[in-house]
Design brief:
With 123 residues, this protein is an all-alpha fold. The protein has a domain of 48 residues. The chain is 58% helix and 0% strand. The protein contains six helices and no strands. Helix 4 packs across helix 6.
Length: 123
């Protein structure tokens, strides 16, 4: 199981989405099936409507941007990698280190959300 600490802003968005997802275990359930999420196509369509070309941005790009900026902002790489559910590349370390860094990751994600709010409010 992967635990993902979320910011207060993310929790608010999840609460706003609840009427649309209903009792589904998915945030974005498929309109065709109660047991499947939507495909990535609607998300990619949304990016295209926002004028992002196919060679400019994809959904995974948001993870890359966040990882890059969190590293540049000086956050511990272990916290960042664990937040994105990336495995340890060093086999010995992977066999010994099971740290979740939940307190640190919770603080990091709140600071990240606050940072994004600052950028949004500056425009």
């Amino acid at each position: 199981m992967h635990i993902v600490p979320l910011s207060t802003q993310a929790m608010q968005i999840l609460e706003e989405l609840q009427p649309y997802s209903g009792t589904s275990k998915y945030l974005f359930p498929s309109v065709r099936s109660d047991v499947k999420p939507i495909s990535n196509v609607p998300m990619l369509d949304a990016l295209r409507r926002m004028s992002y070309a196919q060679n400019e941005m994809c959904m995974h790009g948001f993870r890359s941007i966040a990882s890059t900026l969190l590293n540049e902002l000086g956050y511990n790489r272990d916290w960042i990698e664990r937040q994105f559910a990336h495995g340890e590349r060093n086999d010995v370390r992977a066999a010994c280190n099971y740290a979740e860094y939940l307190l640190q990751r919770r603080k990091m994600m709140q600071e990240w959300a606050d940072y994004l709010d600052t950028l949004k409010n500056a425009s």
